[in-house]
Amino acid sequence: MASGTKIGLDIGYSSIKVVVLSHKDKVPRLLSLGHIAAPQPGIVSEADLDLDAVSKSISTLIDEVKPPTRDVVVGLPESRIFTRVVYDLPFLSDDELGQAIRYAAEEFVPMPIKDVNLYYQVLFRSPKKDAKSRTVVFVVAAPKLLIAKYLKVLTQADLRPVAIETELIAASRSLVSFSTYSPTTLIIQLGASTTDFAIVSEGLILLTRSIATGGIALTRIIAQSFNFELVQAEEYKKVYGLLEDQLEGKLYRTLKPIVDVIVTEAKRMIQAHETQNKQRLIKRVVLSGGGAQLPGLVRYFTDNLGLEVQEADPWLGITIDPNLKNKLAVEGPHYAVSAGLALREE
């Protein structure tokens, strides 16, 4: 990439975010960042006119950010791809593993394998072959048509895609230290239309999941319950959120059933992980995405999960201007994916 610079591009449903990092020094340095409202229906559409609008919005944002390169790393939405940790494989050589992954993927990919690109990472492999040896693999299947759509949008925006990866892989890179001393962490990425989950331990993603519940659902239930326009409902959500002592608790009681859907899924993730990985118990939860800043949300998750819960800070491994620290700390959860994309080394 030009001058050791990397652009991380997160094309979300409600906004498009960019982070530009320099990798010239030992610690990556933030050069610029920015965001812009995403056109609707945006990247979820298949219509050329809608995708053209996305490309134009990206071009506008890139012009504002002024990166010294056109090379970009882009993230794919978790809700549109298929991931699975495959635990039940025997000891396999590298040559054998490729074929075994194709067979394993047929069990969880709801479309012909020929229509997806398969990627995998070996999480564990027994040192020798015997009756008890096994291989554990993290598998990602990305639809070829989805990848083609993203490449088309980027090309129209005059960008050069150098890598594509999942949003959760990117978020785990920016939010979780890959040190062996870093606690096993559950990342909850609260987006506009979905909430994505990833369990990360020692730099390895051990479990992922995505559900169709996000910030838009919260805004709509406020609008319906209080007879608000969506804009007013969004403002009430941002100001009062899950604060039980505000508005006589009315907003809290309105939002609680939807937030509980996310909490219940988090509990299922924790239980599923700890059943398979008794030596890697989850010690921490990190909330990222725009929805992470809902007032009262950190405390609500803490009370219901019984774990340490914190808002995302993707700048821990990045050198930033001291004058921007307070501002970037507030915006951190929004940039977890784009910062993680820009942190990609290869």
3D structure, described in words:
The chain is α/β, with parallel strands linked by helices and 346 residues long. It has three domains: 143 residues, Nucleotidyltransferase, domain 5, CATH 3.30.420.40; 63 residues, Dna Ligase, domain 1; 98 residues, Nucleotidyltransferase, domain 5, CATH 3.30.420. The chain is 36% helix and 27% strand. It contains ten helices and 13 strands. The chain has a five-stranded mixed beta sheet. A five-stranded mixed beta sheet has the order 11-10-9-12-13, sandwiched between helices. It has a three-stranded antiparallel beta sheet with strand order 5-7-6. A hairpin with a 3-residue loop joins strand 1 and strand 2. The longest helix is centred in the last third of the chain and has 27 residues. It is globular. The chain starts with a strand and ends with a helix. The model has no long low-confidence stretch (mean pLDDT 94). InterPro entries: ATPase_NBD, FtsA/MreB, PilM, SHS2_FtsA. It holds the Pfam family PilM_2. This is SHS2 domain-containing protein. It comes from Candidatus Daviesbacteria bacterium RIFCSPHIGHO2_01_FULL_36_37.
The gist of it:
This protein is α/β, with parallel strands linked by helices and 346 residues long. The chain is built from 10 helices and 13 strands. Helix 8 links the parallel strand 12 (284-288) and strand 13 (308-311).
Chain-wise SSE layout:
Layout: E1 5-11, E2 15-22, E3 29-37, H1 48-65, E4 71-76, E5 82-89, H2 94-105, E6 116-125, E7 135-143, H3 144-156, E8 160-166, H4 167-175, E9 185-190, E10 195-201, E11 204-211, H5 215-226, H6 230-240, H7 250-276, E12 284-288, H8 297-305, E13 308-311, H9 325-331, H10 336-342
Parallel strand pairs: 1-4, 4-8, 9-12, 12-13
Antiparallel strand pairs: 1-2, 2-3, 5-7, 6-7, 9-10, 10-11
Helix pairs in contact: 1-3, 4-10, 5-6, 5-7
